[in-house]
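note to self: the first set is below, dont mix up w the second
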Amino acid sequence: MDNNAIIQISELTKSFPMGKSAFTALRDINLTLGNGEFTGLIGPSGSGKTTLLNIVGSLDSPTSGEARVLNQSVGRLTAREAAQLRKKSLGFIFQSYNLLAVHTVFENVEFPLLLLKIGAAERKKMVMDALEWVGLTDKVRSKPPQLSGGECQRVAIARAMVKRPSLVLADEPTANLDAANSHHILQTMVKLNEELKTTFLFATHDEKVIGYLRRKIFLLDGKVAKDEWVKADQTVK
């Protein structure tokens, strides 16, 4: 195993029971992601990309094989240990935002820091830094119903990034946004990747997202069909 890898996946298979048989969503996956990558799992619905993202995020376990995330074998973690990994080191961005509607923007972004028991003064600075990264310092007292879809997704990015995680997992993060907001969100994530050296892993079939990726891992029928790096001058600026 490569101790410098953020993610290392070896001979991974994931099956789900279906009546008396089983459905194999992933088969014989071998992948390594290094620090600071901006990479996407690309494929049609049913290709296995979200299943793989969930395993990397310690929300699920392999049926066989191994997925190591930050040098921890996901399949061997207890529920408590998996929760600790997510709490301390992983950030999640979903297409549905998953914001708490009755809480302010500040409170939504602050929530991961409360779980880490960080002191009030430091929490405030970290939240305001995160909101500055996404250009929403003027919305601290607003609540999600008062925001546009693009603003809600920027709050979700701030919440994912506020603890400066080693790895951010983004599942179709632009699915509910128009083109202009999608590009704004993606440009924000590229900037955070470059400035904070955070590794980003997407699950997507959105061409807008694909245009920003520096590595594209194509999944088809649960297998890696193609894994290619993109030259810097071929990504969206």
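second set (the one i keep forgetting abt)
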Amino acid sequence: MLKYEVIDNQKEEWVVFVHGIGGSTKTWGKQIDEFSENYNLLLLDLPGHGLNADNIIQKVSPLKLHKGIKETLDYLHIEKAHFVGLSLGTIVIAQFAICFPQYVDTIILGGPSLKLNSVSKAAVICANKIKGTVPYEFLYQFFAWFMMPKKNHETSRKIFLREVVKLDKETMYAWIEYLQWVLDPDKFLKKLDVLGKKVLFISGKEDHCFVSGAKAIVKKAKNMELKIIDKCGHICSIENWKTFNQLALDHLKLHKERKEPEAVN
């Protein structure tokens, strides 16, 4: 099982949050109050992060990771939930939904990192080749400035740098290797779309690494849509959390309204 934090308000529905690389349950501080008004919340810490910081890993095993999420849901008797992810967490959620679709209701992906542009692909390939040959600190500094280069990204960049330094070196390398999945994701994304789960992508307009990929994904998909936040970078749930929350909660509300007539019929 993964370690986690729970906010159980005795509501009917659950929302599961999955953070990005270097993040933790604390990543969602701007979401907790508003989401907990109508939902129970499960905030997961990925291996090597937050409450799981002592779980040092040499290699990320997707199947083991997905089973860990499933076991956590089973332990808490959560049969189905809405999933909200950020950055790396969007990849984890997409893969989990393919493996265990029965646990997934709707999906909201902030800063969706499922498809890279050519420059970002080159950066991931380069990072994997040089990891272990350059100082560990260089890699997280590089990713911070590469993903969040503008002045208005400063808050997100500082938070990322503050948290990612807590990662064990081997864990950081393992997650960088895991990111190679996004180099050729089209077959997997097609499987996700075929499942019929309603997927909302929320991207910052200034997310130069991933927003073009999100547009390309949605263009081909039947069950996915994209909302873009102006003057916002990669970590949209922090940089413009009010708009992020509104878009996400509206998506969940609309999904519930669509389901209620079906239940009556």
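remember for set 2: The chain has one domain: 4-264.
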